[in-house]
Amino acid sequence: MALQNRAAQDEVIYGHIFDAILEQKLAPGTKLSEESLGDIFGVSRTVIHRALSRLAHEKVIVLRPNKGAMVASPTVDEAKQILFARRVIEKTVIELATENVINKQLGPLRKLVKEEQDCFARGDRGTGLRLSGEFHLQLAEVSGNKSLHSFLRSLVSQSSLIIALYESDTQTHCSYDEHLALIDAVAAKDKERALLLMEHHLDHVEQKLTLHDENTKSDLKAVFSNVLV
């Protein structure tokens, strides 16, 4: 197999696993067998390992010596650090986006938000969550800074794991309205308004999370309260 083709395989498999994490199809703590994934995708374990290594570098999976790979499961403290880092990066991204945006980039952003809205409207929460993450990544592309885009890609996928673990309200989704408002602010090159909107948007994401140590453990008496012995 040519090197270029092997690289293409790595990219495709990486993309499938990355999307599955954003869509919360792969829950935190899920074991990722190289042998099983190789059978599923019809490639060697070596190819799978390269894709998993890239995901491990982005901290969305954990490679454990002699135990294989598993989807990362951020602790409460780790979640808080990830969300703080994302705020810092998103602030810089939105500042640069308002400076560097060109008109032809606005159409694809609006189309993406429309697809996100349609997904939530028909109850396809997983795809809606993935598109919500992709919106932030497209904004990073608009910023013109490839390093920020790469860093944010890791933070967005880790945020998806945090939401899967700690979100207490899965019924309310107004992200697409907030995304449209962000596009309008970026299009107008209104940096102050864009920064404020991004801050409020991330506030709303975090307000639905229950990031308290005491809430990360199950109360056994409550779990088994209706069990008859």
TrEMBL record:
GO terms for molecular function: DNA binding; DNA-binding transcription factor activity. InterPro entries: GntR_C (IPR011711), TF_FadR/GntR_C (IPR008920), Tscrpt_reg_HTH_GntR (IPR000524), WH-like_DNA-bd_sf (IPR036388), WH_DNA-bd_sf (IPR036390). Keywords: DNA-binding, Transcription, Transcription regulation. SMART domains: FCD, HTH_GNTR. Gene3D superfamilies: GntR ligand-binding domain-like, Winged helix-like DNA-binding domain superfamily/Winged helix DNA-binding domain. Pfam families: FCD (PF07729), GntR (PF00392). Residues 7-74 form the HTH gntR-type domain. It comes from the Bacteria. PANTHER family: HTH-TYPE TRANSCRIPTIONAL REPRESSOR NANR, TRANSCRIPTIONAL REGULATOR, GNTR FAMILY. This is GntR family transcriptional regulator. It comes from Neptunomonas japonica JAMM 1380.
